[in-house]
Amino acid sequence: MNINELEQLAKEATPGPWIGAGPSFGAAMPKFINEVLVDRPDDDDDCYEICRSPIGLEDQSSPDLNFIAAANPSAISELIAAYRGAIAAIRNTLNGV
């Protein structure tokens, strides 16, 4: 895994937050998740689609699409920062700083 490449991809991706969304058929919550959308409450361009499940697998893709929504650019950037902080702390401890 190349952390620098992953960080660059996160910087270039559409900012979030991202959410998993799907048809509710009148229920309060979606029956399944079939797309990932940008969800910015104050943005008129709400519901910008990031990705959609494969045709024919809409009702089977919920776990994958929920993961994609959770692994949004902001989350990846936070994980990279935490990783780099942990590595720096380990190095400082090993070097007696």
What does this protein structure show overall?
By secondary structure, this protein is α+β, with helices and mostly antiparallel strands. It has three helices and three strands. Strands 1-2-3 form a three-stranded antiparallel sheet. The relative contact order is 0.19. The model has no long low-confidence stretch (mean pLDDT 90).
**What is the rounded distance between the termini?**
28 Å
How much of the sequence is in beta strands?
5-15%
- Rg value: 18 Å
Largest sheet: 3 strands, antiparallel
- Quaternary structure type: single chain
Following the backbone from N to C, one meets helices and strands in this order, namely HEEEHH
Shape: elongated
Kindly summarize this structure in a few lines.
The chain is an alpha+beta fold and 97 residues long.
Secondary structure blueprint with pairings:
Layout: H1 3-12, E1 18-21, E2 35-38, E3 49-52, H2 62-70, H3 73-94
Helix pairs in contact: 1-3
List keywords for this structure.
alpha+beta, 97 residues, single chain
